[in-house]
Specification:
Helix content is 56%, strand content 18%. It is of the alpha+beta class.
């Protein structure tokens, strides 16, 4: 590789430029999120049985579903709760189990359960961490009724936001449907000897839509429909219940809203909250930005009737966290170059070795995008860690090339011989690092799920860094390095000589008292272990609040 790179500088340069171009394109197109997209294999089964008491729910629904699910492989635990009219069963699978396969297995087993006739169809849903709301839109009725607010939220705002690319679902919190409520008068029902069941049957009978057959001619076919339902409140009130007794005679009919199943308010003002969810694996920041662009349009539609505001916007926190890590990435690269210059005291060597950092990082971005990873805290932290590995590979090669030049070899011969000596060493170092980090991506449990992208990112950086160190670095060194020591080298040399003398004395002391040194090291090591319980442990570091 290095021999071809030295002889073919244009091809080597095109390789690096290709890495940079594809890496930059990948960096711009990769989705951004705070943490990796992790699916926990948890499935819930909710079954509604209106009017049933807790005992009936548990015996007729919950126990049957639990028994059916227990036959599925890979189940870690089953948790259930039974309440009046509702059964909820939560199935937790082992993390190695695919969430989609687990959900399908649960649906198959639940569909075969024999449930009571009046029980609703069980709703099987999987836990989606990425399905949490990324931004909320809050609507209030300023100069209009709550009824019109509900219509505005459901028929105007929700469809408009739903059209945005990569928006997965929109949950409306605090929404109440239009509902016609009938309040029977008990005294009147007793007076006319009408039961509640007869009242329900009469109302249902007078509100039906049925097919009326077909009307077929030689040229067309018409479908006939019979509309026998009330189209207004007045028509509903005039429904005949029994013996010329109308509905309005025995009940009060109101055009109102359904009972609230949830509630949304802001600063004590009731309203409607639209929770925007994204499709799993998509770019959170781009979706939030698209939603924000739609809000002015919604405000124009709302006019002075309704209030529109954005709540719980997650993008600033994600941007702030990613910017912090990006800053650390750039800052670490600059510091690495400065440290190299301070110790090697050669400007050309510093520039050549520093160029390996952006080339390797861009190449890593390209591999990350190809493998389906995204920009998040874990992948960017992995890149930050890899900077030391990247520049270390470059320094090992370029320093040996410079050493060969000091021994009297020409540029090209020094580049070839110096890289040849270090090629196996770089390969051994890269293989060792891959052997450390790649197995991390195969860890089990929640930690393994989170650290998969971190470990693979470091692995990608190691692979790209290896190719850069054995191609771009020797090719560039063969054309740019030159012997000679700068003025800064001469001025700083006494300092490094003094450091060498201190190191030499320390080394002689350690070798003279080998046993005492070993005892001291072990004492410090075991003493430090006693401090481990006092450090504390946490899965995710807590953010400092200003």
């Amino acid at each position: 590789m290095y021999k071809l790179a030295i002889k073919r500088p244009i091809a080597t340069l095109m390789y690096v430029v290709t890495l940079v171009i594809f890496g930059y394109m990948s960096f711009k197109s990769m989705p951004s999120a705070l943490f990796p997209n992790v699916d926990f294999p948890i499935v819930t089964i909710q079954t509604n049985y209106p009017g049933a008491e807790v005992g009936t729910i548990e015996s007729q629904i919950t126990d049957k579903i639990e028994e059916a699910i227990s036959r599925i492989g890979g189940v870690d635990s089953i948790i259930s709760s039974s309440s009046d009219g509702v059964s909820v069963v939560t199935v937790k699978f082992f993390l190695e189990r695919d969430i989609d396969e687990a959900a399908n297995d649960v649906r198959d087993k639940v569909s075969a359960v024999n449930l009571p006739k009046d029980a609703k169809t069980p709703l099987v849903s999987k836990l989606d961490i990425g399905g949490a709301p990324i931004i909320n839109i809050f609507l209030t009725a300023k100069n209009d009724s709550v009824e019109n607010l509900m219509l505005f939220a459901d028929e105007k705002v929700k469809p408009r936001v739903q059209k945005i690319n990569d928006v997965g679902a929109i949950n409306i919190v605090g929404y109440k449907d239009r509902e016609i409520k009938i309040f029977p008068h008990i005294t009147e029902l007793n007076k006319y000897a009408i039961t509640i069941a007869e009242l329900n049957a009469a109302v249902a009978k007078e509100n039906i839509k049925i097919g009326g057959g077909k009307l077929i001619t030689k040229t067309e076919e018409l479908t006939l429909k019979t509309k026998a339902d009330a189209l207004s409140i007045e028509e509903l009130k005039n429904i005949e219940i029994k013996d010329n007794i109308k509905l309005k005679d025995i009940a009060t009919v109101e055009d109102s809203l359904s009972d609230a199943k949830n509630y949304a308010s802001y600063n004590g003002v009731e309203g409607v909250m639209l929770e925007v969810q994204k499709i799993s694996g998509t770019n959170t920041l781009s979706i939030v930005e698209s939603v924000k662009k739609v809000v002015p349009e919604i405000q124009m539609m709302a006019g002075e009737k309704f209030g529109v505001m954005i709540l719980n916007d997650t993008s600033p926190f994600i941007i702030h966290s990613l910017k912090d890590v990006e800053f650390d990435l750039v800052y670490g690269s600059i510091l690495a170059a400065i440290i190299v210059f301070v110790f090697l005291r050669n400007f050309t060597i510093t520039i050549v070795s520093a160029l390996s950092i952006p080339a390797s990082i861009m190449g890593t971005f390209a591999l990350m995008d190809y493998m389906g990873f995204e920009l998040n805290k874990m992948t960017l932290i992995g890149l930050t860690l890899a900077i030391g590995i990247i520049i270390d590979d470059a320094i090992v090669v370029i320093e040996n090339i410079y050493k060969k030049m000091e021994e009297g070899l020409g540029k090209y011969e020094a580049a070839y011989e110096g890289t040849k000596e270090m090629a196996f060493t770089i390969l051994a170092i890269s293989a060792m690092l891959l052997a450390v980090f790649v197995p991390v991506s195969f860890m089990s449990g929640i930690v393994g799920k989170f650290f998969e992208s971190f470990a693979m990112t470091v692995g990608f950086a190691i692979i790209i860094s290896y190719t850069i160190a054995l191609s771009f670095i020797p090719s560039l060194s063969a054309r740019t390095l030159s012997k000679g020591e700068s003025r800064f080298y001469d001025l700083s040399e006494p300092v490094f000589k003094f450091i060498e003398q201190i190191y030499e004395r320390t080394l002689l002391f350690v070798l003279k008292y080998k046993v005492s040194t070993l005892i001291f090291v072990f004492v410090v090591f075991f003493a430090s272990l006693t401090l481990f319980p006092k450090i504390g442990m946490d899965f995710i570091p807590k953010e400092d609040k200003a």
